[in-house]
Amino acid sequence: MAVPKKRMSNSKTAMRRAQWDKMPAPTLSTCKNCGEALRPHRICGNCGHYAGKEIIAGLQPDAAASSES
Ligand SMILES: [Zn+2]
């Protein structure tokens, strides 16, 4: 396993972390079945649908979870 040769200074750590807020927000699309926000090309975690088809059977869309986020 690769191991860092030297401990990174507090200054270097702070310089790296100063760039975090410049990162763009992840791209989100909406589920065509339940409207939940999700990453593209992923099965919906709320209702289990992908590309208009039910992939995970028996997963009921939770109305409370979709309205929260
Ligand atoms: Zn869905």
Layout of helices and strands:
Blueprint lengths: L9 H8 L11 E2 L6 E2 L10 E2 L2 E2 L8 H6 L1
Antiparallel strand pairs: 1-2, 3-4
Bound molecules: zinc ion.
Describe the structure.
By secondary structure, this protein is an alpha+beta fold. It has a domain at 28-69. The chain is 20% helix and 12% strand. It contains two helices and four strands. The protein has helices at 10-17, 63-68, and strands spanning 29-30, 37-38, 49-50, 53-54. The strands form two sheets. Strands 1-2 form a two-stranded antiparallel ribbon. A two-stranded antiparallel ribbon has the order 3-4. A hairpin with a 2-residue loop joins β3 (49-50) and β4 (53-54). The protein is elongated, with a radius of gyration of 20 Å. Zinc ion is lined by residues 31, 33-34, 36, 44, 46-47, 49.
Write the element-wise H/E pattern from the N-terminal end onward: HEEEEH
SS-based class = alpha+beta
Structure ligands: zinc ion
Strand order of the largest sheet: 1-2
- Count, helices: 2
Give the strand content.
5-15%
Low-confidence stretches: none
Short recap of the structure:
The protein has 69 residues and is α+β, with helices and mostly antiparallel strands. It is built from two helices and four strands; from the N terminus they run αββββα. A hairpin with a 6-residue loop joins β1 (29-30) and β2.
